[in-house]
Every structure is written in C-alpha cells, then in structure tokens.
Amino acid sequence: MKPIQSELKAWMDKNENFKTNYTRIKNEILSDPSVKAFLRDHPELTDHDIEKNLMRLYEYKSQSKQCDRCASFGECQNLMQGYSPVLSMDKNEIRLSYEKCHSRIQVEEQEAQQKLFQSLYMPKEILEAKMSEVIQDKSRISAIGEIISFLEEAKSGLPKKGLYLHGSFGIGKTYLLGAIANELKKRNYSTTLIYMPEFVREIKGSFKDDSFNEKIDFFKKADVLMLDDIGAELQSAWFRDEVLGSVLQYRMMEGLPVFFSSNFDLNELEKELASTRNGVEEVKAGRIIERIKQVSSVVKMSGKNRRDE
Ligand code: ADP
Ligand code: MG
Question: Where is the AAA+ ATPase domain (predicted)?
C-alpha cells in the first residue's frame, strides 16, 4: 500500500479544484498572525512538517486565544468552554494543547468565594445582607461596636470568640449574622450559618447513615459557625449533649469562633437547655452554657421589631 500522503498528492494533482481550495486554506492558515508567530519561533520546522500538522494549525487558528474573541465566559466560542489553545514543540512534533483561559480562572475563583458563605435554609435577604446597610441606631450600637472589632481583628487572623446576640424577635439579629458572614467572605473565611431547628432536623435525619459524622465534622470545622435562633428546639438531650455539646467542645479546643442569635439571654437559655424530655438536667445545661461563653462574647440587642415595617 502506498503511503497515504503520496496517494493524496497524486489524487490532488488530478483534481485541480481541490488543489486550489487546499492551497487557499493553507495560505489562510499560514498567514494567520498567531500561526505566523509560532512558525517564526520555530524555524526548524520544514515545509513537510508544516504540511503534516496543518490540521492542528488550523484548529489553533480557529480558536479564540485567552478570550481575544469572546465578550465573556458565557459567550466563549471555543471547542472546550473556557480553554484556550497553546502550540508547543514536542521533539519534532507540533503539539496542540489547551489551558484554562483568564475568564475561566476568574469564574472559578468567584465560585470558590461564593462557597465561603454556606448557609442552610436562609432567606435571600439574609444571604445578601450588608454591613454597610445596617442602620446604626442606639439600639444596635454595642452590637455593631463588637462586630467592627471582630472584623478588625479578623484582618490578622480569625478571633477565637464570636458573639452571642440576644434580644427580642424581629430586631435584626439574623440580618446582622448574614452581614458579618458577607464581610468574612471578603477576607476568605468560610462561614456556615444555620437556623437551629433545621440543624436539629438535618442531624437527626442523617443519624445512623454514612453522612452523620461528615455533617458533624462540617459544623466542627467551618472557620466560622453561626447558629441562628438557638433556644426552644433543644428538647432532645441527645442532640444537646452529643451534637451541640461536641461541636462546641471541638471549636472551643481549636479556638474557632461561634456566633449565635437567640431570643433568650444565657440564663433563660440555660433553663431551656435543662428541660428536655428526660426531665430537668441542670448540670448538663450548665456545661453547654460554659462552652457558649468560651466561644462567644454576649451582646444584648434591643430595638423595634422590623418585621412590622
Ligand atoms: P431577628 O433575627 O432579630 O428576629 P431579623 O434579622 O430576621 O430579626 O430581621 C427582621 C426583619 O428586618 C427581616 O426581614 C430583615 O431582613 C430586616 N432587617 C433587619 N435588619 C435590617 C437592616 N439593618 N437593614 C435592612 N433590613 C433589616
Ligand atoms: Mg432571627
């Protein structure tokens, strides 16, 4: 069997039309500035090498390079979205490979940032809460002062204590937690914010299945943990001691901050924690309160119920 190249050449010699087309396309490829630049850098390539690799050069020519022809990541025109072609030499072969383009790298970085604020079952307004939009009236002044110093300290490392924000319903405790989480995101800290009744449900739902330890670990190890609305849902002694107690114990030992919001002050919370379906267990409740004090500083908030507005 004759080599395919010479077969092709013979065939082309007989087919003028094809030959003209082929020559036109070849000239187009070779006059492309990016292909030209590559060939200029590799004078060792013979005509034969170029001919042999024409398809690769064509593919290289046809693709947008580092977003030069794409308006945005979403409008990427390349064969593989977000990948830019690169030509190189491998021994005497021209190699065509693909690398991530600038836009793809940027999008991936943004996605990674987004993941830093994981919140479970939180409304959109909380996810988008901004410190700059928190109204600084008298009733919030001490909470805001504490938050500002926490965020200031966080510039040079994560503080060991978060805050225990307590006060009546509707005064913006949860909103403040969301705003803090968004500030921490800017500093590359990961925050997990969860509504306490959902935390209980989530953990109970995975009890005895494979994800149980994984979930507990997730709450133990987040840079910053925020437990929203801690209080009356803790009638289960098992959850109080084995889940909440162990998560707080771990974070206390590791010096990882926890934020809480609650309608109860610590004395009231202690009473809530003591009364479970097992009866009144003051010592065990006291143990949890001690841990809460180790991982957070208590701040009382007041103000009007913003839900009425
Ligand atoms: P709490 O957790 O104390 O019960 P929330 O944080 O849920 O209160 O706040 C009650 C309502 O007021 C929510 O709808 C919340 O989005 C809104 N809110 C609270 N603080 C602010 C604020 N600083 N700016 C805008 N809206 C706020
Ligand atoms: Mg709330």
Answer: 159-287
User: Per-residue confidence at 235, pLDDT binned at 50, 70, 90?
Assistant: confident
pLDDT for 308 equals 65
Here the CATH number for the domain that contains residue 170 is 3.40.50.300
What φ, ψ does residue 157 adopt, rounded to 5°?
A: 135, 150
pLDDT value of residue 110? 79
- Judge whether 258 and 249 are in contact, CB under 8 Å: no
User: Domain check: are 84 and 114 in the same one?
Assistant: no
Q: Ligand nearest 132 Cα, by number? A: 1
Q: Alpha-carbon distance 46 to 13, whole Å?
A: 22
Instruction: Return the pLDDT at 10.
Output: 74
To the question of pTM greater than 0.85 for the whole model, the response is no
Q: Domain of residue 88: give its range.
A: 7-100
Q: Is 169 in the pocket of ligand 1 (CB under 6 A)?
A: yes
Domain final position from 45, 71, 100: 100
d(CA 35, CA 33): 6
Look at ligand 1, atom 6, and give the residue with the nearest C-alpha: 172
Q: Report yes or no: 35 and 96 within 8 Å, Cβ to Cβ.
A: no
Mean pLDDT check: name the lowest of 128-132, 149-153, 301-305: 301-305
Q: Which of 34, 67, 100 is the last residue of a domain?
A: 100
Kindly report the protein residue whose alpha carbon is nearest to atom 24 of ligand 1.
134
Helix pair 54-62, 33-41: axis angle to 10 deg: 130
